[in-house]
Amino acid sequence: MQRSSPSVPRRRAPAVFAAVVLGVSIVGLGCAVWIGLRGASAVQHLRSAQATVGSATTEVADPAGAIERLGEAAPDTSAARALTGDPVWRGAEILPWIGPQLAAVRTVAASVDDAASTAVLPLRAAAAVLAPGAVHTPDGAIDVARIAAARPAAADAATRLRMAVDRIAEIDHEPLLGAVSTAVSSTSAALDRAATAAEALERATTLVPRMLGADGRRSTLLLFQNNAEWRSLGGVVGAVAQVDADAGRLALVAQASSADVTAFVDDPVLPLPDDVRGVFDTRPARYLQNTTQVPDFAVGAAVAREMWRRTHGEEVDAVVALDPVTLSYLLRATGPVTLPTGEVIDGDDAVPLLLDEVYRRFADPREQDAFFQSAAAAVFGALAEGRGDSTALVEALTRAGDERRLLVWNADAADQAVLDGSTLQGALPVSDDTRTTVGVYLNDGTGSKMDYYLHPRTAIGWCAAGLATLRVSLRNDAPEPSTLPPYVTGGGEYGVRPGDALTGVYVYLPPGAEVVDRRTSSDGAVAPGFAGGLHDGRAVVKWSVQLSPGQTGVLDLDIRMPTTPRLEILSTPTRDPRETPDVGACSAAG
Length: 590
Prior knowledge:
This protein has 590 residues and is of the alpha+beta class. Helix content is 44%, strand content 22%.
């Protein structure tokens, strides 16, 4: 018998296949809609959280309020995490193109949620311990034990925030859409600011108690830099003071002019490394005024400490450098102070008074130094008395530190290591996988106070892959030389015409970088030319330019860099906080 063929299943196969395809399509469409709706909602929550975190991490004046705002982001971050963590979302992360976008959004949501939900509590605990008015004892001393008690909470918050930053840093930007990549970068930057602030708080709660004598008497040498006569780290050291601390009680035990500190003309007080001598000779180790000429505070601070020991017989534990701009920030926190002359000085008039007016009042340099010392002593007295809101003082010190106007060096290596990576160390420019940093340092060659009238502008930008252009311009805005005291113009004593300003510009290149072209224009000024050297593996280009009133000098360097990450510039802080470097496109520098 002939066997019949199973015709029914064959007729149904296309229908079954179609049903399966339709079912898969419906499921896929459902998943796409599910992911799209949840993704849109998650993005809204993340944008809201990012705005909250961004405003919190840029608020210095009200840290307690900033912490509360950081906590306010938690509901949004928690919602975004829940919306991006379900199995459907995770399953779609294996898909091409869309998968990396989904994975990036989920990682950002989880990281921000971890930061907002776990770091706020320890930050809040630290803020409560360091609340305004709570860091002074009834007898007026600084409560060093209370400050130290805030360290565990600060360290916990710093660790949690840094973990969130590191997690986002692992995201591969290569497959990401531009908008997604930008969102990842901006969120990472906001969290990095929060982590940096928490790390600074951890350092402060670790080191400040020690420097204030929590474990016994500590001595600190204060170096007052004068921005009217440039040195790499700010200005010539014009006055010094020794402050002793014991259990949070401060005492100003000695003050002196730089002229009172022995000049070691014949033999440097300490040996300088060969590469430092190759760039700066031995001047930084022979004259206290030049100890801030080397753009590495660890070098100059050790020299200043030894000079003070040999001159005054006191071996200090730490050296701190600051300038009149820092004093003006502190005066805004403490309020006006009265000098022994009866004159009142405040945060608005401190800089012009100490860097300009004083030279018009007093012809004798010792009288000038005495006036400066009296102003510094008055500010110190206000701080020692506990004047000023602690939040405002933190803001003042933070700003000065960020602008590299406040530098700290400890003779104890363990204490100094607490500051590793912070601007307070005044270290050489650092380049790594995330940043390429150039240093631009200014040094007076006139022997005068003419830098009060000089205005620098520094800019850098990428012009091609691995090729950046740096522009440094200087403008002399001094008035008619005859209207200025000889002490300000230098009086021609060092061979520079009164009213002119001779400046040495030291450009520190990143390790492995090289100058491929250099151009100068000097508006008729004298430009003696270039010199160079090598300092700690960094090529140094020195350009000298002499400018008369009204003249401008410009230096352009085309620099080939070994890598092309984010560009940064470290530069000499001047008397005007607005004179900061520009980082942008090639046209910004060229």
